[in-house]
Design the sequence.
């Protein structure tokens, strides 16, 4: 952690003392009364551009914050170079999100420098009027889809004085009740052959998959589980 001041823990991710103002970096501030300093972990994924912070919040649990400062669009002649830089940062953000456990609360925030269109349920209508989508907006949309991130600050009337920074949040939770989890663990202990049957069922189902769609794969795994084992609560 960098430092604490006036009741805040401050984690900074910069690019050095000689950086231009437009390359100043990103920072995450955690309220000291809510987050234990000893629990804070962080990673400068991309210096000055992408910061990942993990901390334990009192009454909240583990919170993962990914703060991004995407490259801004510049002159027309620089577009090819900027597209490559932006694509690299999107990929680094995706890799970072992919390492976060679903047991944590996830907040993705920062300056995305990306214009989106309303798209339920991920993006609301609180956007500037006559705003054209960025040429690489699809990259951010795919990240939203894959990690179920909602653009929290777009579900209200847009204020012309607001900045185009974004806050995306994703609250993951288990759809299975605890009794099903316990019963499944018990079945696997008593019938270890179910594991091999499940693996075979998944392998057979994957032969028909031609593209990566998280929801499709999730449904595939659930269906394989239903075919292999039946969970019934004792009366």
Sequence:
């Amino acid at each position: 952690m960098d430092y604490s001041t006036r009741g805040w823990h401050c984690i900074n991710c910069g690019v050095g003392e000689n950086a231009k103002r437009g390359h100043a970096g990103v920072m995450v501030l955690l309220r000291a009364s809510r987050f234990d300093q000893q629990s804070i972990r962080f990673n400068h994924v991309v210096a000055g551009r992408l910061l990942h912070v993990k901390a334990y919040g009192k009454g909240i649990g583990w919170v993962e914050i990914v703060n991004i400062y995407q490259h801004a669009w510049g002159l027309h002649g620089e577009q090819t170079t900027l597209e490559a830089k932006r694509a690299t940062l999107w990929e680094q953000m995706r890799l970072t999100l992919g390492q976060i456990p679903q047991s944590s609360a996830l907040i993705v925030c920062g300056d995305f420098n990306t214009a989106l269109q309303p798209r339920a349920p991920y993006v609301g209508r609180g956007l500037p009027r006559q705003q054209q989508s960025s040429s690489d907006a699809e990259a951010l949309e795919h990240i939203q889809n894959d990690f179920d991130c909602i653009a929290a600050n777009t579900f209200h009337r847009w204020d012309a004085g607001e900045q185009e920074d974004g806050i995306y949040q994703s609250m993951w939770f288990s759809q299975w009740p605890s009794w099903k989890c316990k019963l499944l663990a018990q079945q696997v202990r008593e019938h270890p052959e179910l594991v091999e049957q499940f693996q075979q069922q998944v392998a057979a189902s994957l032969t028909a998959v031609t593209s990566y769609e998280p929801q499709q794969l999730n449904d595939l795994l659930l269906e394989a589980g239903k075919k292999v084992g039946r969970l019934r609560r004792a009366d």
Residues 178-228 form one domain. Residues 7 and 33 are 7 Å apart (CA to CA). Helices lie at 79-98, 137-147, 178-190, 193-206, 214-228. The two ends are 53 Å apart (CA to CA).
